[in-house]
Amino acid sequence: MLKRKKESPEAGSEQLFRKMPGQHEANLAEVMDGYSKLLIDDPVRPFREENLQSIENNVDYGVLAALNGTWVSYNVNYNKDITKPSLASGVHTTIMPSPGTNSGTIPGKFAFDSEEYIEKLTFSIVPGGVRNRGGASELFCGAVKYEQSIKSVNTVQGQDALKYTPIHEENGMYLWLSDVYNHAATKESIERDRGIHAISTEDAKYGYTGEYRDEPLVRITPDEEANPKYILLSQLQPGQPYYEIIPAQEIKPGAGIDGPYFIPDYSISRSGVIPHGSTITLLGDIVPQNKDNQTFYLIEGSPQFPYGKEAWETNHLSISRTMGNAGVTPEEIIDLDKPAPAWVHETLNDVNDKGSNKIYTQRILADDLYPYSVRPDLRLRDTLRGQKVSNYVHVRMSSKMKTGAQGGVLNVPFVNRFVPTVEVDMDMWIETVIEDGKEILQLQYEQIVFFEFDFGNDGGTTSWPHIQVNTLRKIQDIPEDQRKVIEDQFFNISENSDAASGCPYHKG
């Protein structure tokens, strides 16, 4: 959980978003300047009704403020080892049950698809804070709406024109969960929220004759005494024994000021609606980097991705660990920066594929988009090869956190029965790229959605990774030829329509 510097008396040694040594000021650095980790002993801000409008007008959006606008696919081909130029910037891999299969009766059959895609992703700041009231705790969320449209890009035999097919729509909201206040009871709030209930006479049997009692009564006489005596807790002397507690029926002004104080587990949430029949809630935060015994969340340089055999890392592969792992062993690791192994193009049998570890994943390595069909985020790596990135912020989110608060996934009955979606993990890099002396914001992401359906002769369940990666820039920052494609595919403005509402530059 992060807080703004201006909300603390001083940043002090806990400041996390300080610029790294030698780092120049940049737009992203300006957005992220002044943040520090919120700790349990940090000052807590009181909430007062007269400050409500000011709080809403100054709600924090954190790094989400950098997302505002329309982002579209940005396509480059910096990896000269890939002889076939990419058609689009995005890559997805999808594994589904093979036609005719029925879970539990015909195991081991699946369809694999890997395609390139283009995308339009629009973020819109929601003005004013979204207020969540929790009694003594108040949370003001900085909300950012998003709308996503994706079309696959493929060639058609015998045609020069590419085929663009809509494959995904999604909308939802990101929240920056940072503005937390303590809201103590006041005389006015107690009187307002008490309602019209008449004064209780229930306490008369304890000898209390006041009106609404706002502190506990305690019995100070032992059980064996026939005439018990009760006093208010405030009248109890230090060390004086008591034998029974009668809870208060009302709170007193100032109640709640002594805590406990709420510190959110995470700074960011994402809620999304997917028309396949799933709704998601992801939670997460900004990933730090440690350097020179200091912690930085605004990181100098470019995001790092592996090369060679180090790229065979199962958490990012479209080949699940429960799919046989393509026969890979610690001694025999596939180098994804070299051509696929010879067996990928062979006919496999019980002799050259004992245990059938390769046959299930052969088509993934033989795909035309190799190596991206195996590890899609290498496309992100290769996009960065020819770029000068001065700094970036790395956001990591998941529906299934290892500790703390949890997000989740809900599915309609059909999806839940045949291909239940059980987890969504997302990494997002917001980067400052220097081109021709100009600073350009760039957005890269990797999203892994895990499906589950039956696989294997033992009746076991396999976790199938459905991966999407893409590189995006604001629409005004992409080349003219790519912009023309985006405008043709995602914006349709008739002569009689409101040009501003459909204009790709309207969101900045």
Number of domains: 2
Overall pLDDT score: 86
Beta-strand share of residues? 25-35%
Fourth-tier CATH superfamily name of the largest domain: Calycin beta-barrel core domain
* Helix content, binned percent: 10-25%
| Principal-axes shape call | elongated
The CATH class of the largest domain turns out to be Mainly Beta
What characterizes the major β-sheet? 14 strands, antiparallel
Q: What string, H for helix and E for strand, traces the elements in order?
A: EHEHEEEEEEHEEEEEEEEHHEEHEEEHH
Counting DSSP E segments of at least 2 residues, the number of strands comes to: 21
- End-to-end Cα distance, whole Å, is 29 Å
Query: Which ranges are low-confidence, i.e. pLDDT below 50, for 5 or more consecutive residues?
Result: 6-26, 494-508
Region (Disordered): 1-20
3D architecture notes:
It is a single chain. The chain has 508 residues and is mainly β. The chain has two domains: 69-180 and 267-480, Lipocalin; 187-242, no CATH class. The protein has helices at residues 27-32, 52-57, 187-193, 362-365, 378-384, 413-418, 480-490, 499-502; strands spanning 2-4, 35-37, 69-73, 90-97, 110-125, 130-134, 137-154, 163-182, 217-219, 230-232, 244-246, 268-274, 278-286, 289-291, 294-296, 299-300, 388-398, 408-411, 421-435, 438-454, 461-474. The strands form four sheets. Strands 3, 4, 5, 6, 7, 8, 12, 13, 16, 17, 18, 19, 20 and 21 form a 14-stranded antiparallel sheet that branches. It has a three-stranded antiparallel sheet with strand order 10-9-11, with no helix packed on it. The radius of gyration is 29 Å and the shape is elongated. The two termini are 29 Å apart. The model is unreliable at 6-26 and 494-508 (pLDDT under 50). Residues 1-20 are annotated as: Disordered. InterPro entries: Heme_bind_FMP (IPR047975).
